[in-house]
């Protein structure tokens, strides 16, 4: 059986589960902490790689991704 969820789909679902109003942009796939640290987080009218959401750590997001 093939899992219909790609890593990127799991990433966005995990972010929504942990922080439903967080907005981000991803270029490529998110499979490790190095890639997670390159996520562009929306802050006001711009995007930054500085994650403004303390509850959205790589460990927390990865744990949710693993459940999906």
Summarize the structure.
The protein has 3 helices and 3 strands, in the order αβαββα. It has helices at residues 7-18, 33-36, 58-67; strands spanning 24-25, 40-43, 46-48.
- Report the average pLDDT across residues: 93
Structural class by sheet pairing and helices: alpha+beta
- Helical fraction equals 25-40%
Output the radius of gyration.
12 Å
How many discrete structural domains?
1
Question: How far is it from the N-terminal to the C-terminal residue, by CA?
Answer: 15 Å
Oligomer: single chain
Strand order of the largest sheet: 1-2-3
Along the chain, the helix and strand elements come as HEHEEH
Largest sheet: 3 strands, antiparallel
Q: Roughly what fraction of the amino acids lie in strands?
A: 5-15%
Let me know the number of strands.
Answer: 3
Q: Assign an overall shape.
A: globular
Low-confidence region ranges: none
Number of helices: 3
